[in-house]
Each structure stands twice: as C-alpha cells, then as structure tokens.
Write a structure and sequence with these properties.
The complex is a heterodimer. By secondary structure, chain A is mostly helical. Chain A is 73% helix and 1% strand. Chain A has 15 helices and 2 strands. Chain A has a two-stranded antiparallel ribbon with strand order 1-2. In chain A, helix 3 crosses helix 12 and helix 5 packs antiparallel against helix 10. The longest helix of chain A is centred in the last third of the chain and has 27 residues. Chain B is α/β, with parallel strands linked by helices. Chain B has 2 domains: 234 residues, Rossmann fold (3-Layer(aba) Sandwich), CATH 3.40.50.2300; 171 residues, Response regulator (Rossmann fold), CATH 3.40.50. The longest helix of chain B has 25 residues. The termini of chain B are far apart. Classes of the chains: A mainly alpha, B alpha/beta. The interface between A and B is large, with 35 and 42 residues.
C-alpha cells in the first residue's frame, strides 16, 4: 500500500515541474491523433524506448552512482528470450517478456555479486567486459541464431495483440507508453523507498553508509536487478517491434554507451533526467540523420553536429540538462 | 456571339491540352533508396548511390550513346514519360534506423518502392517493413542467401548471392589443382589444402562463413580456421595471428571497407605468406582498398562487375565511361549492381505501366530483362521461385578478379574466373608480404 502511495507521490517537485510533466503527458497521449509523419512516430517510439532504458540505468548509475556500461547484455537477454520463445515455441509476447525479465534479473544476480566487489573505473570496465563476453557467446550459439540472429515470423493477421505484430505504429506507441508510465511510477516509488534512500547514502559515501548498517553490496545488487528488469522489458519489446534481432544490434557496446549517455546527459540521479536526455538525443540523432545524412556532399555532417552538441552540454554542465535547471533554481533561491 | 463562344471553347481546349501536357511532363515516380552513406561502409555507400543516380539519369533522358532500351526514352514511357525521382537516405548500417527510414519513405514520402540496402542485416529489417505495408522492394546488392528464403511476396533480389559466389571460389581452387586457370600450371593439391577464413560477424559475414564451411566440406578442403570478427574492431592482429598459425594455402575473407584495409595491413605487418588471398567483394572491391597499390597485387575478389568487363561488353563500356566522367572512378561490383538494381526498377515500372503496388508485384514476377541490356555480364534478370527461394534472379553470375599492375602503373582487376572469360594470366602464388 505504501509502495503505491510512494509511486504517486510527486510532492517534492515544484508545481512548475508537475505542470510541464502533465502537459508532456497530454501531448504523448494525444500524439497519434495529432498530424504527424511516420518518421516522427518512429522517433517517438525510440524516445520512449530510450527513456525506459535510461530510467533503468538511472537506478544503478544515477541513484547508486555506479557507472554501468554493460546494459546492452540485458537488452539482448530480453530480446532473445522473446524471439527464441516466439520462433521456436510460438509463445506470445506477454508470456515471453516476463520470462525474459526473470532470466535477465537472474543473470544480473549471478554477475552482480562479483561485479560489485569492484569500484569506480574497475566496475565500469567489468560491466563492459561482461556485456561483450555475453555478446560473443551469443554470436557463436547456434540455438539463438548465432551472429545471423533471429527473425520473427510475420504472422500476417494484423493487428495481433498477443504477439505484438501491428501494421500501424500507433499500437506499438500506446503499448510502450503504458510501459513508460508504469516504469515512471515505479521509479518514483523507488526514489521514496528504503532502497532508494540507501542507494543515495551509498552514492554520497559508501563507508558512512556502511557504518549506518546498510548492506552496501546487497543494495547495489538489488538496484542492478531493478535496472536490468527495465532494459530486459524494452529488449523484449524491441524484438517484436523490429522483427529481427542480432547480437551486433541488441548487445553492442554502442547501445550500452548510448543508454548511459542519454541518462547522464539528461541528468543522472534525477527522475526526469533520463527522459530529458532521451527527448534531446533521440530526435536529434534521427532528424539530423534524416535531413543531412542523405544529402550529397553533407554525409557525416549530422554526426559532427550531434557530437558537438553532446560535447557542449557535457562541457557546460557535467550534471546534465537537469543539473542546469537545478543550477538556475539554486541561483534564484540564492543558494 | 457564336464566334465568341467558339473562341472561348478553343481557349478552354488549349488550356486543357497545355495543362494535360504539363501534367504528363511533371509526372514522377519516387523510388526510396537506402544506403550506408556514413560509418564503416560509407565508401561503398558513395558508389552505390552514384550507380543508382546514373541509372536514373539515363532513364530520365534520351541518350543516344547508350545501347539500352531505357536510354531511348525520356522517363517511363508506359507511364506518360514519368521521371524517376530518387529519395536517398542514409541508414548508417543500422538495421533499426533502416526500418524507421523505410517507414518514412513509404508513408511520408509515398515512394512507389524501395531500392537498397547493401548491408544484409539492414535489408532484412527494411524488407520486413515493406512486407508489412505491401510495398515492393528490389534489392541489388545484399548477398546473404537467407534473404530470399523467407517466402516474402514483396521482395526481389537481382544480385547472385553468397552461396553462388562461394561455390565459384571453390571451383577456382579445384581449377588451380587441375591446371584450368589461365597462365598457371596445375598446383599440387596439398599446397592449397589448408584454408583459413575470417568473416565479419553480422548477417552477411556469418552467412559467408557458413557457406565457406559447407563448401570446404563438400570439396574436401581442410578449414583450419573459420573465425568471426567485429568489422568495427580497431585491431585485428590476434585474428590474423590465429589465421597464420596453421600455415594455410589460402586465406579467405568477408570484410567491409575499413576492416578489409586493416586486415591487409595487419597481414603485411605480420609478414603472412599465403599462396592465395580471396575476398568476398564488399571491402575488397572499393576504391579505398585499391589505393593500397602494390600491397594488394595478387589478391582475389569476387565481384559481379570488373572494369575489364567493359572491354568485352559494349554497353558496359558505354556506361562505365559515363560513370567515370562523373565520379572519377570505374564502375565496381557495388556501383554496377546498384545501377542494375535501379535499371530493374525502371524496366519493371515500364512493364507495370503504373506505380500501383499490385501492378509492380505482377510485373516483377513476370519480367525478363535480356542480358544485353545490362552492364553486368549476366544472362539477364528473371525472378523465380525455385529451390526454396522466392524472388531471386536466376540469370545472375559471379566473377573472380585479381588485382594486377596495369600498363599505366596503376593497380586494376583482371578476370580469372570463369575460366572462359579470363582477361589475364593469374598470378600464383602471390608474392606475400
């Protein structure tokens, strides 16, 4: 009961934040009804996916302060569980998704235990290594299609809610939006939970947290498992949305870095940070590529601009966009 | 009064006639083109794009110097002279981005169909989008055999695929042992018996790796190493070292541009001494690769087009000359296939007489383009559903070329397989590094 109350407790945010969040929610709900291009819809779906990835990453990377650069391995576990179950045993998405989340969480406990014996850069490097090793294993594992990956069979009877196969993207959009809202509420509850406070204490000073009786190692493992559940859920969705997965696509280091970068750029350790990060980087990446990527003589310019903007934000405010907002508020309050 | 009425009717008729003529002239058919214009395969993307653009240019105006039917008309004649308009997008080698861009092309830009995508992994997701929306896609340059085994109704492929190409390689190896290769005496079997292969590990490379393994077994060669590697890898020395270790007679590769160059540089730095090096086109057939000059002398690459084809096929020479004028380089396997892909689109539209997807689908399934229309040395283009494949051109053919020093001191490709088309003596063994 308290968990549900916590999930809906946004009282620590100023009214302005809630007004903006409410307006954004109305916009998201109405988006498919507004005039839009299909590319805008595809971009919105990417935005929701990366917001969820970022929310998950934020639990361990933001609240617990552990820089995790290996999240793609769990995207892969979620995606592959759904794809394998669907291709081999014809299992619907709504069954394979929780199985994928459970497998990913199980794996996170197995590798989380030794991983959290490490700190700082060593931890970050270890997360990269575990992710790449798992990717390499998937690339030679014939049961999951090896490096060629798996292609989900087109069932043809659109719309198919059981197997998540739709002709029109707004179905995917609303399903993902429901996951996004559920994910947001869960994270909000997580912030107010005992584990949430423990993680922030750990982030501030591990030794002090330990002296207060907090089991630092176990707290980190639990936060890691929460983060894992998020990305595995989106991974399962990704398999159905894309109809095709391969290790290079779902488990690459690029994806791990992108997940971390979006959350950090938006503002790690804040509720809105990952959403802000995704809302800036996803459209920028898509539209710059679409506008400039195909222009003769301008190929690559989109990536230059994209990189320059990321560097600019990182240079001006290392705490990300949300850090800028808080800095402005702090100045107004005279803090 | 009657005179005024007559004048008004005449004026109205003239206006209608002019506007009808204007409409006919303004008619256009949009084709979405998806290629990797940035990233590791950007070099390939540039020539792929140039190939498609040249085909569109020839189709859109009468060109007396090109012996092709599409050069005789200005636009698609059966569609009132409709001009081909290409909408080119960069998928960066990313399957998800490719799928999103395909949706944009189909739903926002209202293209009649799609041409692309080079990377087999991207072609896979893009063709799945086309299948969902019932929009035709013609693929000219993706060679993963799996693409035409999915029973898709809206996907056709003009290029031969890796199963054919890999078989060609083993026929060449056997030909070497039997003394069939121009300029080479029969080579003892044990000299070539050990093979080592390295393929990039996406959809395309992993399929090539599988085909190499299958054919090595079938032709009874010992495949000592068959590894997969990341095309984006900044260092390939451990891969090359494990290939050198069993002292293979032949080294086989499936690489994109940057990794093909890195692979050869690493072979050189580690002083590899194979008797033969073969690349499965892609990176081994790019202008950047040729810039390595003498270092690549003797290396083989499979292709569907080599500049030497232009010497023996008139229409290839005509198009190659035009391509060279515009881009400063000869047509290669990628650009020639992209040209052929778009050319197929033009002939299909000509046959369909409409941009209606059903009419295009019917035309694709019925069309036969004679070989004399094509720049590539194929018997033609005819899509058939045979041997568990759907929409595969059954009249295609592969070539194997060898980099040799030309009279002008530049490196160029000479045909060594098929044996009856050989344009020069094969260099065997290669001098090594």
């Amino acid at each position: 009961m308290e968990a549900i109350r916590n999930a809906f407790d946004f009282s620590d945010f100023p009214r302005l934040d809630m007004t903006v969040a409410g307006a954004a929610l109305v916009f998201l709900l109405a988006f498919p009804a507004l005039p839009h291009s299909s590319f805008a819809m595809a971009t919105m779906i990417q935005f929701l996916m990366f917001s969820l990835y970022g929310m998950g990453w934020n639990t361990i990377g933001g609240y617990a302060g552990q820089v995790d650069l290996g999240k793609a391995q769990y995207v892969g576990i979620g995606a592959y569980t759904t794809a394998v179950m669907m291709v081999r045993w014809d299992v619907p998405f709504w069954v394979s998704m929780p199985v994928g989340m459970a497998l990913a969480v199980g794996w996170s406990f197995i590798i989380g235990y030794p991983l959290f014996k490490l700190k700082g850069h060593y931890f970050a490097i270890a997360t990269i290594a575990t992710s790449l090793v798992l990717k390499d294993l998937f690339e030679v594992w014939d049961f999951v299609g090896g490096a060629k990956g798996l292609e989900l069979p087109l069932r043809g009877n659109f719309p198919d809610f059981l197997y998540l196969q739709f002709r029109e993207d707004y179905y995917y959009f609303y399903i993902l939006l429901a996951m996004f809202l559920a994910g947001l509420l869960f994270i909000n509850g997580f912030r107010h939970s005992r584990l949430g406070y423990q993680l922030r204490a750990i982030k501030d000073n591990e030794d002090v947290a330990r002296s207060l009786g907090i089991n630092v190692h176990w707290c980190k493992i639990k936060a890691y498992a929460v983060a894992t559940a998020y990305v595995a859920m989106v991974g399962s969705f990704h398999a159905c949305y894309n109809f095709n997965i391969e290790p290079e696509d779902t488990m690459s280091l690029d994806l791990s870095v992108l997940i971390a970068m979006m959350a950090m750029l938006g503002g790690a350790g804040s509720l809105w940070g990952p959403i802000i990060g995704a809302s800036i980087l996803v459209p920028m990446r898509s539209y710059l590529g679409s506008w400039l990527g195909g222009q003769a003589g301008l190929a690559g310019l989109d990536l230059v601009i994209y990189g320059a903007i990321i560097m600019l934000i990182a240079a001006v405010q290392p705490r990300g966009v949300w850090g800028m907002v808080e800095a402005v508020r702090g100045r107004r309050r005279g803090v | 009064m009657r005179k005024t009425m007559f004048l008004m009717v005449a004026l109205l008729a003239a206006t209608l006639a002019f506007s009808a003529a204007g409409l006919a002239a303004d008619k256009e058919v949009k084709i979405g083109v998806l290629y990797p214009l940035t990233g590791g395969a950007a070099a390939a993307g540039r020539v792929l794009r140039a190939g498609a653009e040249l085909a569109a240019e020839i189709a859109n105006q009468q060109m007396s110097g090109i012996d092709m039917d599409m050069a005789k008309n200005a636009g698609v004649k059966s569609m009132g002279g409709a001009k081909i308009v290409l909408i080119v997008k960069d998928h960066q080698g990313n399957p998800q981005l490719g799928a999103d861009l395909a949706k944009k092309l189909i739903k926002d830009d209202k293209v009649a169909g799609i041409l692309g995508c080079y990377h087999s992994s991207v072609t896979k997701t893009v063709s799945a989008v086309c299948e969902r929306y019932g929009v035709p896609m013609i693929n000219g340059s993706s060679t993963s055999p799996a693409l035409t085994t999915r029973d898709f109704k809206w996907f056709w492929r003009t290029t031969p695929h890796d199963k054919w190409f890999t078989k060609d390689l083993f026929e060449l190896l056997i030909g070497l042992t039997e003394g069939k290769v121009k300029g080479v005496k029969a080579v003892p079997r044990q000299e070539l018996n050990i093979l080592a292969a390295a393929c990039e590990k996406t959809e395309w490379g992993s399929h090539v790796s599988e085909e190499i393994k299958n054919f090595a077994g079938e032709y009874k060669f010992e495949l000592a190493v068959n590894l997969l590697y990341a095309a984006k890898s900044p260092d390939l020395s451990s891969e090359v070292q494990s290939m050198i270790a069993p002292k293979p007679g032949a080294m086989l590769f499936a690489s994109y541009a940057s990794d093909a160059i890195l692979m050869v540089k690493t072979l050189k730095s580690l002083k590899a001494k194979p008797k033969l090096i073969w690349g499965q086109d892609a990176g081994f057939d790019k202008p950047e690769f040729r810039e390595m000059g003498a270092d690549i002398e003797g290396i083989l690459t499979r292709s569907v087009f080599l500049p030497s084809v232009a010497r023996v096929k008139k229409v290839s020479g005509q198009v190659n000359e035009l391509f060279k004028q515009k881009n400063g380089v000869d047509l290669d396997g990628a650009s020639a296939r992209s040209f052929t892909g778009l050319q197929t689109w033009v002939y299909v539209l000509e046959k369909a007489g409409s941009s209606d997807p059903k009419a295009i689908q019917k035309a694709c399934n019925e069309i036969t383009i004679p070989g004399d229309q094509l720049v590539v040395p194929w018997a033609g283009v005819k899509f058939e559903n045979v041997g568990g494949e759907t929409g595969q051109n059954v009249l295609g053919m592969g070539l194997i070329g060898q980099y040799q020093m030309q009279k002008d001191g530049k490196i160029g490709l000479e045909i060594v397989y098929p044996f009856n088309l050989a344009t020069a003596d094969m260099i065997y063994p290669i001098k090594g590094f």
